């Protein structure tokens, strides 16, 4: 049914979209006149793709809820097969609009639109500010030039059509599980791809732009965005959240407001004028106005004497001032050279509050300092009396500090070597309580005592079923040792390349090792407070416990990078055969370098031989990854790629899935590689 009236104003409201929660269903795809549909009841289409039911906002003021009449009037959801575009005859746009808030389905701030003028689509805030673009459509690539990830390695097919009547974009899914997905214009300003899992739960699969701080004014007026902190958004000093309940729901776009209103440059009741709060390393808003002045004092005066001026900045380029609300502020770290010093205009009373707080803090700190000094003296006396080296002393949580003497005794003077790598050699040891451990003697560690302990402390807090657990450490002078749980089945390499035909790893075990290793790396990349780039992913660094559960070793020994950095330069070098092209070239690397190494390791899981080994194919010598890639791309027999020792005993679908993931991971351009989170979802079968 098509009506000229605004479909958002019609009640009761029906949503022909996939709900975020499980609902009671009639179990049929039709409803007759003698039946009712109420509450949480819904009816579901024959193929289980669409669902119809009532929606009731939880918020106190729903205000013009949305009604999805047909594909011609999408709300916040874009489904497979649905067109998004522009009618050249009528001038009508078919776009996707975010909700006003998490609890209010009225039209919100953000829209996803097609722009026929440059054959691109983009994100727009408040119907005027285009802040993100997909780039122009590339027919050969089958995707937009700046977002090749939209192709999702063949799981979705996007098609762009432009003729005399219309221009539109639509997508279809290639697999049954992919059909249970939707693209949502999220109220945060990101476009999010949601996949329905076997547990009837929607999982956030991908988003554009990838970082919240790339969304224009993501934190609203007078809010700052910081990718290295949680939550990402915070209010400037002297401001508070407009709606605490919305911020609790991770909806920040309504921003912040002043605690104390400005007096437009006039004296306050205390005889003081408004002043400016200094904020460093800020990515400033773009709507700056330039003022011709000679120094920072004149710049401040120019802002203070203008009632509409809310902030100023002065650098080598001169004086900049901002009028009205401050939008799109980002807090950067000191290493980011794009940051500037911004001076925020505040009421004089705000500085009196800050001064009072500082004085109070000074009193508290002074009292606490005296207590700390006394406590330190007592501890020094106790340590002097005991004159005993640390042996298994608690450092943080379950992390222990050992003496080098104890570790020397537990390893029988480091007599049983388990292996070695770029960071040092590993030895087997037994503690006094009969616990078996693995002790790594670190080599070429140049950190000072404080830095070493800080990094070890960080590693010690990271725990995951697919990561080797760090039990403790030893640091005495130049001697640096780490103590790990012992893995009784050794490394993956020992089974793939050095094992006998009698104890060869079967395919089921190999597939579970692939999934477990991917989960461990995804945790390091995406779940830790700081993204950890491993820098040396290979079978030697995947250890197996008594149940052959894989555990990634040596993580955290490379540099830690904060979320505010997308790249890090490192002098460390991994192992030949697993290094990404950008790493070999000596340029900056990201976590995608780990993805490349993981892809190379997947080929070795399938073949049971080193990737560096050349094999004959069609009368020519080729390296296995090159040959395997040709087979996958050309749709050949992937079972032929399998380890001969398995004699074809493997799930063909799983072998094909692993090979396709491996090919996806080892692409030269890191932007075309998946994230480890995406790899996990594919290997788990969530996305096929």
* Biggest β-sheet: strands ordered side by side in the sheet: 18-17-25-21-26-23-24-22
First-residue to last-residue Cα separation: 35 Å
Main beta sheet strand tally, sense and closure: 8 strands, mixed
How much is the average pLDDT?
A: 78
Radius of gyration using CA atoms only:
30 Å
Computed structural class: alpha+beta
Q: Helical region count? A: 13
Oligomer: single chain
Question: Fraction of residues in helices?
Answer: 10-25%
Strand content: 25-35%
Unreliable stretches covering 5 or more consecutive residues? 1-26, 59-66, 267-271, 386-397, 559-574
Q: What is the strand and helix layout of this fold?
A:
Blueprint: E1 42-44, E2 51-53, E3 77-78, E4 84-87, E5 93-94, E6 96-101, E7 104-115, E8 120-125, E9 129-133, E10 137-138, E11 143-144, E12 156-162, E13 166-173, H1 176-179, E14 181-185, E15 191-196, E16 202-208, E17 223-225, E18 233-235, E19 239-241, H2 244-248, E20 256-258, E21 275-283, E22 289-291, H3 296-304, E23 309-315, E24 318-323, E25 329-331, E26 340-346, H4 348-386, E27 393-396, E28 399-401, H5 404-410, E29 417-421, E30 424-430, E31 436-442, H6 449-460, E32 470-476, E33 479-485, H7 492-496, H8 507-527, E34 542-544, E35 550-552, H9 581-584, H10 592-607, E36 614-617, E37 620-623, H11 624-633, H12 652-665, H13 676-683
Parallel strand pairs: 17-25, 28-32
Antiparallel strand pairs: 1-2, 3-14, 4-5, 4-13, 6-7, 7-8, 8-9, 10-11, 12-13, 14-15, 15-16, 17-18, 19-20, 21-25, 21-26, 22-24, 23-24, 23-26, 27-28, 29-30, 30-31, 31-33, 32-33, 34-35, 36-37
Helix pairs in contact: 8-10, 8-13, 10-12, 11-12
Binding site for ATP: 441
Pfam families: B_lectin, PAN_2, Pkinase, S_locus_glycop
GO molecular function, one term: ATP binding
């Amino acid at each position: 049914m098509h009506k000229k009236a605004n479909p958002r104003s019609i009640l009761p409201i029906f949503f022909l979209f996939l709900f975020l929660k499980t609902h009671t269903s009639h179990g049929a795809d039709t409803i007759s006149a003698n039946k009712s549909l109420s509450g949480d009841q819904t009816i579901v289409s024959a193929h289980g793709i669409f669902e119809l039911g009532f929606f009731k906002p939880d918020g106190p003021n729903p205000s013009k809820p949305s009604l999805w009449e047909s594909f011609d009037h999408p709300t916040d959801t874009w489904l497979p097969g649905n067109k998004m575009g522009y009618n050249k005859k009528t001038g009508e746009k078919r776009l996707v609009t975010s909700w006003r808030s998490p609890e209010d389905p009225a039209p919100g701030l953000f829209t996803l639109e097609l722009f026929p003028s440059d054959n691109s689509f983009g994100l727009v805030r408040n119907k005027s500010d285009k802040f993100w673009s997909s780039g122009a459509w590339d027919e050969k690539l089958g995707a937009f030039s700046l977002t090749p990830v939209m192709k999702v390695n063949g799981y979705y097919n996007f098609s762009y059509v432009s003729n005399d009547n219309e221009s539109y974009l639509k997508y279809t899914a290639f697999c049954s599980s992919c059909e249970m997905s939707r693209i949502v214009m999220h109220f945060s300003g990101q476009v999010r791809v949601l996949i329905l899992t076997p547990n009837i739960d929607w999982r956030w699969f991908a988003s554009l732009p990838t970082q919240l701080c790339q969304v224009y004014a993501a934190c609203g007026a007078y809010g700052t965005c910081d990718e290295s902190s949680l939550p990402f958004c915070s209010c400037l000093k002297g401001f508070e959240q407009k709606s605490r309940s919305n911020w609790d729901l991770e909806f920040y776009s309504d921003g912040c407001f002043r605690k104390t209103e400005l007096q437009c440059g006039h004296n306050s009741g205390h005889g003081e004028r408004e002043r400016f709060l200094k904020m460093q390393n800020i990515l400033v808003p773009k709507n700056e106005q330039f003022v011709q002045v000679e120094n920072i004092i004149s710049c401040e005066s120019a802002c203070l004497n203008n009632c509409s001026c809310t902030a100023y900045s002065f650098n080598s380029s001169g004086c900049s001032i901002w009028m009205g609300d401050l939008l799109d502020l980002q807090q950067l770290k000191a290493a980011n050279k794009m940051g500037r010093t911004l001076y925020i205009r505040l009421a004089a009373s705000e500085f009196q509050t800050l001064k009072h707080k500082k004085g109070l803090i000074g009193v508290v700190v002074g009292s606490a300092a005296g207590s700390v000094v006394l406590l330190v003296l007592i501890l020094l006396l106790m340590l002097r009396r005991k004159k005993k080296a640390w042996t298994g002393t608690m450092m943080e949580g379950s992390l222990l500090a050992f003496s080098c003497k104890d570790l020397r005794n537990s390893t029988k003077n480091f007599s049983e070597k388990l292996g070695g790598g770029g960071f040092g050699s590993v030895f087997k040891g037994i503690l006094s309580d009969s616990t078996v451990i693995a002790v790594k003697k670190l080599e070429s560690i140049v950190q000072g005592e404080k830095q070493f302990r800080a990094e070890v402390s960080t590693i010690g807090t990271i725990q995951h079923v697919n990561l080797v657990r760090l039990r403790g450490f030893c640091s005495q002078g130049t001697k640096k040792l780490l103590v790990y749980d012992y893995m009784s089945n050794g490394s993956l390499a020992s089974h793939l390349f050095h094992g006998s035909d009698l104890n060869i790893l079967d395919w089921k075990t190999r597939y579970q090792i692939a999934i477990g290793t991917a989960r461990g790396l995804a945790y390091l990349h995406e779940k830790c407070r700081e993204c950890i780039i491993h820098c040396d992913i290979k079978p030697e660094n995947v250890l197996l416990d008594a149940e052959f559960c894989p555990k990634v070793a040596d993580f955290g020994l490379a540099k830690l990078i904060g979320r505010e950095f997308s790249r890090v330069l490192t002098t460390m070098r991994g192992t030949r055969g697993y290094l990404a092209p950008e790493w070999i070239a000596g340029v900056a690397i990201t976590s995608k370098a780990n993805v490349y190494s993981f892809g190379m390791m997947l080929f070795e899981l399938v073949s049971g031989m080193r990737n560096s080994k050349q094999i004959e194919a069609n009368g020519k010598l080729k390296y296995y990854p090159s040959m395997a890639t040709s087979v996958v791309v050309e749709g050949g027999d992937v079972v032929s790629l399998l380890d001969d020792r398995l004699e074809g005993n493997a799930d063909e679908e799983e072998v094909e899935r692993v090979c396709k993931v491996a090919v996806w991971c080892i692409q030269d351009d890191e932007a075309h590689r998946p994230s480890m989170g995406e790899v996990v979802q594919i290997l788990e079968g969530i996305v096929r």
